[in-house]
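ok new one. same drill as before - structure tokens go in, u give me an amino acid for every spot. 451 of them this time. try not to just spam alanines like last time pls lmao
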């Protein structure tokens, strides 16, 4: 849908790896046969060739559910009937999370809790209310793994609850409610990973919650489906938008729970409009097929999207695919949002059109004008001459629809405009001088015309 596809493709080709296509069609409303056909169509138009048959996520459903059942059987997930007609399956970030890749144990933390709000400890996590600056309850909570060595202290600092004393019972499904506590004291754990674009990223587990992996209707959630499919397809690098950073922290635990090594992650900057807001269809064309319909060439669009958030380390802006593949590296992907400049794309498209072999350009023009009345058989003789004249002046392939004046006798003036502009004092003598100058030009002499 955006530059991520082009950058993934170039990364795979640069590294000599495989570029794979997975159709994430679990949202059946949005993933209609027509939508999938449109996806494959524009990928072919952009020449995003994939190396193995596409994997359709809905066809992997049974595998996803078997993985969820395995997690349940090993106590790494649990059923939750809240908020639905059936039971959802929730992944539990493991209490001994420091055994997972990227998890580190940090120093002690103390939090004030509101005296009128109880602290609830269950296998799903710790729920409590902090204290706002105005002294009001401020709801909070996170997974159980976020509160290593948890103690609840009374107003005099005396421990009134130690999690280690009841941890086994709570993990087995028991719940504890503690009233009268004034502080939570615990050891902080954090999970981190080295992002290929953003560097080292880290998140405390006391800001994370356990998460649903199978909905109450029995359908696998994005988190489980993606991780299972990444394992099945042997994915080594995941390059996606930085709106997925939060998901990556969750997925690291899922990979570990499924006995797999997490892939390398790189998160690309979002594409934004001129106001710095996420670019969307409200800003104009947002789907690749719309750019094709407007008359953009696939090479120009691919070139532009690749340079939207990445640079080759020099001033080049026009690069063919081979140059892009050779020059690409993730360390030159910028971390700030990439701003769309449609004028730059338009000019780049004009350069690509100007450099097309003339025969190819002419065939494209003829195909585009096939059903246009003024460009039929009686205009066939002059069309190649017009095309040769106009190729370097054409910014969009759809501009050919404006060539009518070469083939049809059009009105040569507008009476109101003549009166407004040409009837001013001194204009008639100036026009006469211009006519005389043009009459003296030898139109068989190219240099004379240029002069």
């Amino acid at each position: 849908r955006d530059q991520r596809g082009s950058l993934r493709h170039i990364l795979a080709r640069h590294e000599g790896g495989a570029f794979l296509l997975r159709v994430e069609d679990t949202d059946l409303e949005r993933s209609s046969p027509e939508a999938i056909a449109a996806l494959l169509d524009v990928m072919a138009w952009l020449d995003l060739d994939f190396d193995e048959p596409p994997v359709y996520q809905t066809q992997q459903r049974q595998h996803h559910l078997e993985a969820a059942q395995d997690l349940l059987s090993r106590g790494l997930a649990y059923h939750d009937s809240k908020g639905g007609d059936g039971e959802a399956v929730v992944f539990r970030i493991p209490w001994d999370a420091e055994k997972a890749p990227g998890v580190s144990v940090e120093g002690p933390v103390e939090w004030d809790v509101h005296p009128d709000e109880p602290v609830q400890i269950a296998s799903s996590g710790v729920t409590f209310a902090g204290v706002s600056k105005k002294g009001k309850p401020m709801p909070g909570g996170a997974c159980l793994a976020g509160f290593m060595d948890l103690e609840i202290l009374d107003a005099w600092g005396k421990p009134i609850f130690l999690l280690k004393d009841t941890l086994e019972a709570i993990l087995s499904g028991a719940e504890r409610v503690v009233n009268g506590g004034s502080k939570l004291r615990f050891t902080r754990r954090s999970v981190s990973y080295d992002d290929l674009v953003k560097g080292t990223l880290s998140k405390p587990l006391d800001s994370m919650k356990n998460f649903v992996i199978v909905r109450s209707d029995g359908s696998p959630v994005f988190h489980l489906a993606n991780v299972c499919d990444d394992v099945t397809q042997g994915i080594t690098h995941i390059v996606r938008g930085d709106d997925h950073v939060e998901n990556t922290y969750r997925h690291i635990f899922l990979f570990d729970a499924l006995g797999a090594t997490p892939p390398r992650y790189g998160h690309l900057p979002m594409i934004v409009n001129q106001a710095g807001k996420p670019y969307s269809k409200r800003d104009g064309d947002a789907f690749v097929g719309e750019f094709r319909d407007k008359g953009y060439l696939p090479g120009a669009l691919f070139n532009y999207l690749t340079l939207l958030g990445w640079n080759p380390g020099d001033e080049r802006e026009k690069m063919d695919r081979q140059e892009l593949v050779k020059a690409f590296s993730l360390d030159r992907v910028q971390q700030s949002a990439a701003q769309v400049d449609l004028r730059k794309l338009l000019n780049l498209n004009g350069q690509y059109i100007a450099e097309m072999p003339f025969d190819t350009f002419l065939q494209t023009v003829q195909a585009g004008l096939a059903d246009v009345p003024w460009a039929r058989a009686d205009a066939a003789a002059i069309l190649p001459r017009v095309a040769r004249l106009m190729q370097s002046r054409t910014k969009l392939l759809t501009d050919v629809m404006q060539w009518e004046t070469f083939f049809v006798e059009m009105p040569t003036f507008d009476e109101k405009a003549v009166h407004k502009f040409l009837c001013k004092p001194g204009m008639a003598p100036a026009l006469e001088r211009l006519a005389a100058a043009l009459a003296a030009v030898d139109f068989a002499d190219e240099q004379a015309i240029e002069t």
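DSSP finds 15 helices and 18 strands in the chain. and btw The CA atoms of residues 79 and 89 lie 5 Å apart.
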